[in-house]
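Dock nicotinamide-adenine-dinucleotide; give full complex structure.
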Amino acid sequence: MTDVRTITERLGDPESAREEGRRKIEWAREHMPILAALDERFEAEEPLAGERVGMAMHVEAKTAALAETLAAGGAAVAITGCNPLSTHDDVSAALDAVEGVTSYAERGIDDAAYYRAIEAVIAHEPSITVDDGMDLLAAIHEDHPGLIDSIVGGCEETTTGVHRLRAMDRDGALDYPVFAVNDTPMKRLFDNVHGTGESSLAAIAMTTNLSYAGKTVVVAGYGYCGRGVAKKAAGQNARVVVCEVDPRRALEAHMEGHEVMPMREAAREGDVFVTTTGNRDVITREHFERMRDGVLLANAGHFDVEIDLDALDALATATREARAGVREYELPDGTRLNVLAEGRLVNLASPTALGHPVEVMDQSFGVQAVCVRELAEDGGEYEPGVHDVPDALDREVAGTKLDAEGLAIDELSDAQSEYMGSWDHGT
Ligand SMILES: NC(=O)c1ccc[n+]([C@@H]2O[C@H](COP(=O)([O-])OP(=O)(O)OC[C@H]3O[C@@H](n4cnc5c(N)ncnc54)[C@H](O)[C@@H]3O)[C@@H](O)[C@H]2O)c1
């Protein structure tokens, strides 16, 4: 058993923090109609009764709403952060006060404390895991394999986590079924594109108090997240340059009207750099040495490995905190480069960052909630490995959102269904 304390024990008597956290959660809930609808169904049917859900997610107001929905469904929930800089302590404290939920998440803890908090969640012996980046699942597989028999399955929220899971699966090392929540249309097409696009640019603007208009924004990686960042930056009157390694994605960026060039060239052009590759060493020493004075460097990929900060540290002759959330590195020739949020996910780890817009997370977390329900009800049907979310679940979430928005759509007639499903109607 681990000696890690809950956020409430650590903060003493955090009454005012709890109230502030509760207000944040209530605000988010107001704009989360999918979770509200699921709450009602979950409270009535208690599909998660008897389940212990372990979560390692960005602990802020929207995630708190998901944890509450799972608790409403009858689960005992234990949660911690999935990034030491994205936790909101007040939300964590408010969540810890909810019946059926225990929170260990705390902002700004070091790596050792971060992994101790993950251990604390594991000590609850989860029967279902919900991860954002796979750290909880990895710790269970590496250090607590004895628990795996009692785990029905897991859910993974983000691209990087799904990549890691698929690699584990290929090596035959993944010992329970996991839904790739990230890959569902209801998540990827909205959360990665619009969520990351809007919130990353908003976080950079709020942290620096600077405008995009007339600037050159370099976006590294034109996947789902990169598309969103590029589109929204163009919408704010920036010139957008895209760096890619995949020819089709590079072509797509070109056809969308963005400029495409290698990072070596883009390094000379950019005022703002945003990495969204999920890969390492995307901006390195050879790039730093070509950059202009005063550039902003931000990462929106899952891990803080996209901008090579060790190399920048070694290259710099001086460094200081230029502003909260902005570290300035001075190079030997006097050029100053500004790194935001220590190179971690800028939209979650900046001091003023709020993460994705609430509506977007309602969709992603709606998918999470129905996947947890599926695992509780039919987890035994799934073999160990990575699984696509069943399409019917994704459609259920889309339908719930359309209902909440008061939007109706057309229905296929029988003749149309038959036509779309047949191969013998030619010219
Ligand atoms: N900030 C957030 O809130 C947030 C939200 C969702 C996903 N993510 C993370 O963002 C990252 C990207 O997610 P995605 O869904 O866009 O993935 P994706 O796979 O759709 O896109 C990544 C793109 O980066 C390109 N790429 C890889 N290495 C590169 C390199 N060295 N230089 C240039 N391009 C390179 C790939 O070719 C690909 O097109 C992942 O780490 C994911 O976990 C962050």
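Observed: The first strand starts at residue 52 and ends at 56.
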